[in-house]
Amino acid sequence: MSGTARWLPYLAALAAVVIGPAADVAHAAAPEAVRVYIGTYTGAKSKGIYEMRLDLATGALSEPELAGEVANPSFLAIHPTNKFVYAVSEAGGKDATVSAFAVAPDTGKLTFLNKRSTRGSGPCYVSIDKMGKAALAANYGSGSVCAMPIAANGEVGEATAFIQHTGSGPNAARQKGPHAHCINLTPDNRFALVCDLGLDKVFVYRFDAEKASLVPNDPPSASVAPGAGPRHVAFHPGGKFVYVINEMASTVTAFAYDGARGVLSEFQSVPTLPANFSGRSTTAEIEVHPSGRFLYGSNRGHDSIAVFAVADDGRLKPLGHQPTLGKTPRCFGIDPSGAWLVAANQGSDNVVVFKIDAATGNLKPAGAPASVGSPVCVKFMPLP
Description:
The protein is mainly beta. Helices cover 4% and strands 50% of the residues. 53% of the residues are buried. The model is unreliable at 21-26 (pLDDT under 50).
């Protein structure tokens, strides 16, 4: 069964919530639970990648179990077949790698397959193309990106594409050089978008899945405000809008997206923090709700999730903030049914679930927090 097919019951559950029960496109009962993988920074409280089950009726999380032991798997990606998991090891030198793991369907345990160098330092992001033929990684420390072919057995090959960014930004403390912070494929798998925090740019590369290649687009990039520090990117389900969360400025920049040419055109910028907040805070993750009606972004320092409504024209309207019941919310994930948001509080070693109100987009805490050491990344996988 393809990765898309295995998500159909979850998408049917979302359709039933947003449109009505008659929209049960999968003609199947909604699943009772979904698998959750947590990437971490390893140390005294963490040894690698952890696995839990999220109860889709109650929002309860099962006790976390170590699924795969690996150093600093700060970001994860799931293969579209759901047979493999990929993790960066956020390090330098020969330890800066992408590791491939095979998934045991019954338990979720991960068996190490192999690893390959990202050809840079401080890799902080990995994504898998829609066909499952390539892994793409961003090196924050050295400001570069690469693409690696994926074999039929899930193993990653040596990088077949590598691009080194150059330049600097206006913030001398944070932008002395390039810092590639994410690399994501567009919905049609034709382009890769790269947020570079050090250069205040969102680079666009033409992508070929068969060759695992990256070639600069024309134009090669779009810019955000000087010193904003773009970090992560999220696509609207309709494909016409792209949203970039800026770490240093604590803003979200909205772009219109021309999918035929791979061109981004800015049309709005909104703050992620309350107007009366005067403390220190930086942003981290951004996601659009599967319905396309709401957008969420995490604030580290304010320790909250900012909630926005998304209008038909793509413009954002602030709706408020939900405390994450922990410190330093790094990444979060929205389960494919759109019912739950799972936040990883890196600074307080806990993972917290929030119920998403389908009508308003508001968040409400659900269930007891789970204890995971230095949680960073949240990824979902359907149960077999």
